Amino acid sequence: MTLLREAVGQALREARTSQERTLRDVARQARVSLGYLSEVERGQKEASSELLNSICESLGLSLASLMAGVSQELKVRESAKLSVVDAA
Q1: Predicted local confidence at residue 77, as pLDDT
Q2: DSSP string of 9-76, one letter each residue
Q3: pLDDT of residue 86
Q4: How distant is the alpha carbon of residue 59 from its chain centre?
Q5: C-alpha to C-alpha distance for 37 and 51, rounded to whole angstroms
Q6: Rounded distance, CA 65 to CA 29, Å?
Q7: Domain 4-87 annotated CATH 2.60.120.620
Q8: Could you tell me the CA-to-CA distances from 75 to 50, 69, 78, 80 in Å, in that order?
Q9: How many CB atoms neighbour CB 67 within 10 A?
Q10: In whole angstroms, what is the distance from residue 86 CA to residue 12 CA?
Q11: Model confidence over 48-87: pLDDT tens digits?
Q12: Nearest-5° angle of CA 77, CA 83, CA 87?
């Protein structure tokens, strides 16, 4: 089972790295600590909606687009798992 916080963290990390930005840069602009942002990206912390919105804004994303992408990714992962279970 994929946890929501892991999928959100992965999506944030992908957005940040695709922009070739550092954790430090995004954390500073989002006004969160570097360590906290790192933990969010690694799926170890579940950020509040306010902090997620701040991180998204620093990446030039809307919170809605982040969550839509995460939702789609979770659907893909769940479908793949169901296919494996059905095949067994």
Answers
A1: 86
A2: HHHHHHHHHHTT--HHHHHHHHT--HHHHHHHHTTSS---HHHHHHHHHHTT--HHHHHHHHHHHHHH
A3: 66
A4: 12
A5: 10
A6: 19
A7: no
A8: 25, 10, 5, 9
A9: 17
A10: 32
A11: 999 999 999 999 999 999 999 999 999 998 888 777 666 6
A12: 150
Domain boundaries, the chain: 4-87
Listed residue (33, 41, 35) closest to 12, CA to CA: 41
Report the 10 Å Cβ neighbour count for 74.
17
- Distance of alpha carbon 11 from alpha carbon 69, whole angstroms: 8
Per residue in 8-48, pLDDT (tens digit) is 999 999 999 999 999 999 999 999 999 999 999 999 999 99
- Token pair 């840069």 in the structure block, residue: 25
Length of the chain: 88
Q: Output the pTM of the full model.
A: 0.88
| 22-25-31-34 Cα dihedral, nearest 10 degrees | 40
Q: How many CB atoms lie within 10 A of CB 40?
A: 23
